[in-house]
Amino acid sequence: MPPPPEPSAEAASARDAERWFRSRGLPFFAHPGSRGTLLVARTAPVIALLCCVELAGSLLQRTSISIDARAPLPGAVVLVAMALGLLVLVAIPAAALLAAGTWLREWPRSTTTAGWVLIVYDVVVAPWVVGHPFALLDHLAAGLSVALALLATRLGVGSLASWTMRSAIRQLRALPQLASRALPLLMLVVVVSFFSRNLWEVVNALPAVRLAGVVWVFALLGLLFIVPVTRTELIGLGNAADATPELSRLERVNVTVVLVLAQSLQVVIFSGLVCVFFTGLGSIAFTPAVLDVWLGPGRAPLELAGVRLPVDAALVKTAVFLSCVSSLNFLISATTTASYRSAFYDPLFDDAKKALAVRAHYRWAVRLETGQRIVAERE
After folding, report:
1. H-helix or E-strand spanning residue 255
2. Which of 192, 193, 208, 241 is nearest to 2 (CA)?
3. What number of other Cβ atoms are within 10 A of residue 41's Cβ?
4. Confidence category of residue 4, pLDDT binned at 50, 70, 90
5. 227-243 pLDDT, tens per residue?
6. Which of 35, 44, 127, 340 is most buried, judging by how many CB atoms fall within 10 Å of its CB?
7. Any stretches that span the bilayer, and where are they (predicted)?
8. DSSP readout, 228-250?
């Protein structure tokens, strides 16, 4: 057996390595017996999110806002305040999910206690708060939600979700690199189409549901391309890293999902960047008179949650469609073009290579600890 690689600071012990795996969205790299460790504490942020969502839903059901056209300011202020309140309700558990690793490492008992308090609140107290104190079905539904949250955490869904949020933040930090390196060249492929009247007519005729279907088709095409490529790259990566022992099926699925999610986040952020660019370009380049000639008068503005925005709906539809085309092109270029691959694709697999090295040391440490325990029992 080859000597294990030098452990990193994160993997100085088996428990540290298990935390390290979970923080990277790789819970199945840890020993199966450790998946129930601090289960309630690890589920606490998810239960907090459930409580906040239930409270937000109750507030939305009980609140009705009308904006007077003659004096819109008071209603608009109330609407903005309510939106900020709902944002805070979602942001608090999201921040807790991001900080859960630190809390578990520093205050495991306190975090476990907080988790039990949240469980009692969600199952027993929350139905009273939302106005259904004697509804048995509400208590049962809350209990079922908590049970599913605990099961999902044990299966590693919580680790994957928290890693996805952290990865999204890291990808947003790379936004300047996307804008400076990927956007200009890839835009040349579709920018001519943006000034095509035929494209505007076709996309404008699509209802929102059909446009969403088109977006899902592009997403499916991207997955059909990237999943086989990732699996092939992972086989070569495992051979190069001398993964000992060989990755199990669950471990292979786990690392594949993480890599596909990381690349998907890159594509989603790039798609949003392209959509914003085209929306801004269209607002400057196309006057209402031009769009009236192309699409006819009486076009509706973009409307979100009942609020009309000062943006043409046809412009946003066209921007969304072209962002999907650009994103598929970006995904293919990121895996085949050398300059894009070194900037956006290879760093993801460098992280996977490090995870395989930590796993090799972790498995060696677990076997060593097991052997020492057996010897001690025999003595």
Report:
1. helix 249-285
2. 241
3. 22
4. very low
5. 998 888 887 776 655 55
6. 44
7. 76-101, 136-157, 178-196, 208-227, 267-291, 311-332
8. HHHHHHHHHHHHHHT-SSPPPHH
